[in-house]
TrEMBL record:
Biological processes, Gene Ontology terms: negative regulation of DNA-templated transcription; negative regulation of purine nucleobase metabolic process
Organism expressing this protein natively: Paenibacillus crassostreae
Family per record: Belongs to the purine/pyrimidine phosphoribosyltransferase family. PurR subfamily.
Protein name in UniProt: Transcriptional regulator
Signal peptide from the UniProt entry: none
Subunit-structure text: Homodimer.
Gene3D superfamilies for the chain: 3.40.50.2020, Winged helix-like DNA-binding domain superfamily/Winged helix DNA-binding domain
Residue span(s) of domain Bacterial purine repressor N-terminal: 5-74
Domain Phosphoribosyltransferase span(s) in chain numbering: 119-257
Length: 275
């Protein structure tokens, strides 16, 4: 039990809620934690709820009854999301990001926790009302984004391997087609990593035609699992709809032009802003 002044209690309660998104917290838990009456806790939560919603941080839902409590749902307003996307696009348009072969260097951005956290909030906003059991990505670049999204949804992360690891135990492996040259690759998932009939949110850092993500969709079918949604940080706009293997997805940014000779890169906000 902590005896705190109300101002200090408000700060700690806010932090407590932010660290436990999508978790139902009984009022008695706060009352016992701070040695305060439920009526005082309710007043505190009303203040926090007002701040969360007015600042576009998310919703604080209240549930009545003996088993009730509060649940914080992280969300980002379209205005804040667009501001984030425009900043991301500007950074992606830096000329020195072009690599031989017309590839785009993104590893530094994927390594920024604050950046991935904001991207995770956008996906958490999009899929907040979906029934999801876990977040999935394929190693390795998409891992920071997957964990950021999982943290915002308070969900575990499942990693698909490109090569089977002995330490993963028995696994299911499939072949999939990826890349402009339609090359065949293999991905695998430990049988212990995913329960049958799970509802899975797939996230990835970059999508061109969608071969890798379609491979994960096919892999999930081997577990009788369901795709609850797909989110990508950056999609390539240089792909015809006929070539795209995946059409139901959310993107934060769209790479429309990469000119190796002129060093020109054009990136625009993704289809999240068309919803």
């Amino acid at each position: 039990m902590k005896k705190l002044k109300r101002s200090a209690r408000l700060v700690e309660m806010t932090q407590y809620l932010l660290n436990r998104p999508h978790t139902l917290i009984p009022l008695t838990a706060f009352a016992d934690r701070y040695g305060a009456a439920k009526s005082s806790i309710s007043e505190d939560l009303a203040i926090i709820k007002e701040v969360f919603e007015s600042e576009g941080m998310g919703e604080l839902l209240t549930f009545a009854g003996a088993t009730g409590g509060v649940r914080f749902i992280p969300k980002m307003t379209k205005e804040k999301a667009l501001h984030f996307a425009e900043e991301l696009c500007a950074r992606l348009e830096q000329k020195d990001r072009i690599l031989p072969g017309g590839y785009l260097y993104m590893s530094d951005l994927l390594g920024e926790p604050s950046l991935m956290n904001e991207a995770g909030k956008i996906f958490a906003t999009t899929f907040a009302d979906k029934e999801i059991d876990c977040v999935m990505t394929v190693e390795t670049k998409g891992i920071p984004l997957a964990y950021a999204t999982g943290a915002q949804l308070n969900l575990p992360v499942v990693l698909v391997r490109r090569d089977h690891q002995v330490t993963e135990g028995s696994a299911v492996s499939i072949n999939y087609v990826s890349g402009s040259h339609k090359s065949i690759h293999t991905m695998s998932l430990s049988r212990r990593a995913l329960k049958d009939k799970s509802k899975v949110l797939i996230v990835d850092d970059f999508m061109k035609a969608g071969g890798t993500i379609q491979g994960m969709v096919d892999l999930l079918a081997e577990f009788d699992a369901e795709v609850a949604g797909v989110g990508v940080l950056v999609e390539s706009g240089a792909v015809d709809n006929e070539e795209r293997l995946l059409h139901d997805y959310i993107s934060i940014a769209k790479l429309t032009t990469v000119d190796f000779k002129s060093k020109q890169i054009i990136v625009t906000p993704g289809n999240f802003f068309e919803i």
